[in-house]
Amino acid sequence: MANSVYDTYVSPLSTRYASTEMKYNFSDRKKFTTWRTLWTLLAQAEQELGLDITNKQLEELRNNIENVDFAAATEEEKLTRHEIMAHVHTYATCCPTAGPIIHLGATARDIGDNADLIVLRDAFDILLPKLAGCMKTLGEFADKHKELATLGFTHFQPAQLTTVGKRACLWLQDLVLCEKNLSRVRTELKFRGIKGTTGTQASFLQLFNGDYEKVRELDNRVTKLAGFSSSYSVTGQTYPRIVDAEIVASLSILGAAVHKMCTDLRLLAGMNEIGELFEPTQIGSSAMPYKQNPRISERVCSIARYLMNLVNNPLSTASVQWLERTLDDSANRQLCLSEAFLAADGVLLTVQNIFEGLSVFPKVISRNIEKV
């Protein structure tokens, strides 16, 4: 039996590479408190539209959003074999007055999928400023070295002269394109909405005695309360899984861009034209401690390669969602979506570190030009 974190597997993305805020975003606490927030918003909207829900019940729900008994929920799930219902029961335990109206009319995906979309939206909001920071630092580097002539290469063979700044602009342009793509995917992300078991909203029609307008307004109100401007017009049991594929694809493209850039830096380090920050206490190699290996760029390439290959999972998942939905997406999505953002986050933190510590060696660059 594991007695400490050193006795069990942990992901390197969570222990070594990703930021605290991104790790929290995909944590159980964020997940389950978001579920409770959605149950509270659903009850609030249902009350506003005429269902018999009291202010006392709503206050009880709000006051217990953070009061999650994780151990009790785990034990409850062993009995129910249903994660969301386990948390309905656990929430109801600390909200005895509001217990009967938790999850009223909803299906698991009204809560789980909408919570996932909130987490994904927030993940973009953590990631995009970091990408902007990398672009700013790289832009400053390009401007600083815009007149420093260097030998250009095609096919990794000596070609015409270019400048260090112009070459950096090639990397920067790739990051600009990635930022536009990621921002578009973030902007176009929608809420699943309150659609019921198979997207027909039948349970809510029953609750509101067939009043279609109230059912539509319930969907609209919860969407707005959750911070989204709109929901997907049509869903099955889930939001379209092609959305996950588009999200991970945008992150994979970022992976390709930084992999290309850091591969270039590794080649330039091999020619001693550009170098990463090398700390006085750093050991380059166990046998040759003086070696200034481009280890940070190598790390970026390593994580980026993993990120680039993650896109196959959501593509496969989207392609096999039978009719209104099948459950073989669940475990895969829990792995793939979180790891894609954690990997992208780790990559950008590392890239920023590289940019801030880059050294350029003009004398070596001049000698390399003269050799041709």
UniProtKB/TrEMBL annotation:
GO cellular component term, pick one: cytosol
Coiled coil: 44-78
Domain Fumarate lyase N-terminal: 94-304
Cited CDD domains: Adenylsuccinate_lyase_2
Superkingdom as given in the UniProt entry: Eukaryota
An example Gene Ontology molecular-function term: (S)-2-(5-amino-1-(5-phospho-D-ribosyl)imidazole-4-carboxamido) succinate lyase (fumarate-forming) activity
InterPro entries from the UniProt entry: Fumarate_lyase_CS (IPR020557), Fumarate_lyase_fam (IPR000362), Fumarate_lyase_N (IPR022761), L-Aspartase-like (IPR008948)
One BP term from GO: 'de novo' AMP biosynthetic process
PROSITE patterns: FUMARATE_LYASES
Keywords noted in UniProt: Coiled coil, Lyase
Transmembrane segments: none
Signal peptide span: none
Record-given protein name: Fumarate lyase N-terminal domain-containing protein
Organism of provenance: Aphis glycines (Soybean aphid)
